[in-house]
């Protein structure tokens, strides 16, 4: 609900698209080299065929490494972008909890609370504190 979330969503999407573009380029390069190798493999001397196979294997490994690194980079970027937003919401919740003398506040949207008696919903107070309508 926080307005900063839209900016974070957009930035994360652009970051992911940039990584995806790089991955597609690497994949196209791999496909091109693989097709070239396959069409000429029978006529290549053994030494050249071995070199081309190693080149393809290395490129395939680089693609796999890039995919893993990209996933880690996206996760890190997500934490970087959403961390301050979540901190701001958490601080508002803590402030309201202190002001209203609540002992516990549960986030039932996460599904971690199986049963809870009907109680106060502080969401309207948090939204007001954060300036969200």
Task: Summarize the SSE layout with pairings.
Layout: H1 4-40, H2 46-100, H3 123-130
Helix pairs in contact: 1-2, 2-3
Provide an overview of this structure:
The protein has helices at residues 4-40, 46-100, 123-130. The chain is mainly alpha-helical and 133 residues long. The model has no long low-confidence stretch (mean pLDDT 91).
For the structure shown, list the relevant keywords.
about 130 residues, mainly alpha
Condensed summary:
By secondary structure, the protein is mainly α. Helix content is 75%, strand content 0%.
Could you give the count of β-strands? Answer: 0
Largest sheet: none
Helix content estimate: over 70%
Radius of gyration: 26 Å
Structural class: mainly alpha
């Amino acid at each position: 609900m926080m307005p900063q979330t839209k900016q974070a969503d957009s930035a994360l999407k652009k970051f992911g698209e940039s990584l995806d573009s790089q991955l597609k380029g690497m994949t196209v390069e791999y496909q091109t080299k693989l097709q070239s190798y396959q069409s000429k493999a029978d006529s290549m001397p053994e030494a050249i065929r071995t070199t081309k196979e190693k080149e393809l294997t290395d490129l395939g490994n680089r693609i796999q490494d890039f995919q893993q690194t990209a996933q880690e980079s996206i996760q890190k970027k997500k934490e970087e972008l959403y961390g301050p937003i979540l901190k701001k919401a958490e601080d508002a919740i803590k402030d309201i909890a202190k002001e209203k003398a609540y002992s516990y506040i549960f986030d039932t949207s996460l599904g971690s609370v199986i049963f809870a008696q009907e109680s106060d919903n502080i969401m309207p107070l948090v939204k007001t504190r954060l300036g969200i309508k």
